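step=encode ok
step=design start
structure_in=
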């Protein structure tokens, strides 16, 4: 147990950082008027991961009957230690990219928001972070000009360019690293475009990340 404890209290252990309200149309569909004055940061636990090395998998929903929403997102992995990162140095800190879903228990989130409480449980449940394998940074010409799309049962529900992000990746790295030292292996989710909505048992979720006509990553999930 002492060895385990020493492994756990290592400040170099990685973390998962996520961004909320980073696409203007999504802000409006959630009842807001404009993006926040600063990026909205939250974290997801590693137990929420559902790693899809070949892009395919089964998504087990929680046993409760809460409404679970899909949020398709671009993510990236941090390559090296970073504190007070300068925006013009941002590329040095990118270790690669991935496609992910940030699943949200919308009922629980609304309940906690109404009470003014944190909504970690709405974002951090088991399997609430499906993600693809890593895309090498060399394959991505401009992460701020990629196309995100999610289909449910072959119907497009989310589709937008990462150019619509209000806070771009250099902004996010600079802001986060003011408060949290970024470590190699940290994962960062950059926010979701508009079109979020519920998923249900037997749904087929098919997400893609494209660079022009090239598909960089895709995920294909059956909901159970």
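sequence_out=
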């Amino acid at each position: 147990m002492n060895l385990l404890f020493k492994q756990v209290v290592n400040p170099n252990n990685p973390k998962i950082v996520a961004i909320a309200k980073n696409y203007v149309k999504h802000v409006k569909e959630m009842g807001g008027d404009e993006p926040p004055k600063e990026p909205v940061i939250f974290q997801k636990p590693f137990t929420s991961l559902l790693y899809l090395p070949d892009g395919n998998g089964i998504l087990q929903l929680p046993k409760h009957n809460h409404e679970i929403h899909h949020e398709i997102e671009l993510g990236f992995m941090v390559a090296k230690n970073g504190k007070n990162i300068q925006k013009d140095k941002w590329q040095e800190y990118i270790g690669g990219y991935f496609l992910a879903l940030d699943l949200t228990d919308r009922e629980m989130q609304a309940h906690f928001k109404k009470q003014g409480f944190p909504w970690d449980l709405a974002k951090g449940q088991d399997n609430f972070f499906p993600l693809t394998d890593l895309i090498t940074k060399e394959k991505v010409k401009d992460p701020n000009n990629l196309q995100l799309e999610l289909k449910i049962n072959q119907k497009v529900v989310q589709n937008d360019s990462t150019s619509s992000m209000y806070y771009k990746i250099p902004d996010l790295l600079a802001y986060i690293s003011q408060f949290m030292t970024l470590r190699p292996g940290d994962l960062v989710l950059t926010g979701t475009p508009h079109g979020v909505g519920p998923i249900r048992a037997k749904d087929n979720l098919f997400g893609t990340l494209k660079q022009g006509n090239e598909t960089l990553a895709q995920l294909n999930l059956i909901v159970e």
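step=design ok
step=annotate ok -> DSSP finds five helices and 15 strands in the chain.
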